Amino acid sequence: MMKEPCSANFGFLARLEPSLHPLAASAEALFPIDASASIGRLRTVAEKLTEAFAEHSGNPIYDREDQSGLINRLQRRGLIHPSVADLLHGIRQTGNRAVHDTEGSPSTALRCMRQLRRAAFAMLKTLGRVPKAQKLGPFVPPALPANAEEALRKQIAEERATAEAAKNEAAAAREAFELERALREDTEGKLAATKASAKELEDLANELIENESHEVALLRAQLEARPKAEQKKHHDEMVEAAHNAGENLDLTEAETREIIDKQLRDAGWLADTKQLRHSRGTRPQKGKNIAIAEWPTKNGPADYALF
Asked: Which of 10, 214, 249, 250 would disulfide-bridge 24, Cβ 3.0–4.6 Å?
């Protein structure tokens, strides 16, 4: 078995199931080589995370129930906050396009990493695997692709600077700084070796998944054996924890707009706050439902104007 992976972004996943950690680390390792493959792997992590969350919260997975249905069922039960569900659905949809149509840019892969990290942290808080007062800490971008655009390089440089500045404030940030250094030394000029490492991480995750199947079955039996009153109390406590975790995602303005963009697109609107902006010349178009960002008003620009 290979050396245990170390991911400052996803190491906490091992507190739920050990296999999730190397699987997420393999998505980071694929990032500088193949953004689409990295996104596809993140979709897989999100799917297995949702299944693990369901099992550990006492909600067995139904036959033929896909990830979308499982997310929606957990949301209806109050165990997943709507904001967390939006993040999971976004990763699922983006991952499907990456897998089936080979769509996916490095910036999209980074966005999915951030979204998965925030959703996973909230879900582990719901289950009590992360202390209520613990903060997520700064995101540490993996090594850059060789052909990365200047805008992406600038974005990652800023994020790395943020992580480095915060490294003495929390143990998670210190771990992130060390991982960034290790990734830089390990990946520069060694892309082929990185790809092999990603495969090893995936194999490690699969091996751990097999070992976990018995533990999950035992956990399910223990949960089902509890008295009904105790089961209800446990469920109500998790609903409250899910609400608190979802209300404190600490999303940036850009991440919030990405979620709103998706909600608008799901409702039939053309929405993209980066491109469909008044300042970029976007105007109402006959026959189109379009959301235009930063529309000027007497009281200042509106975040969205719907035409």
From this structure: 10
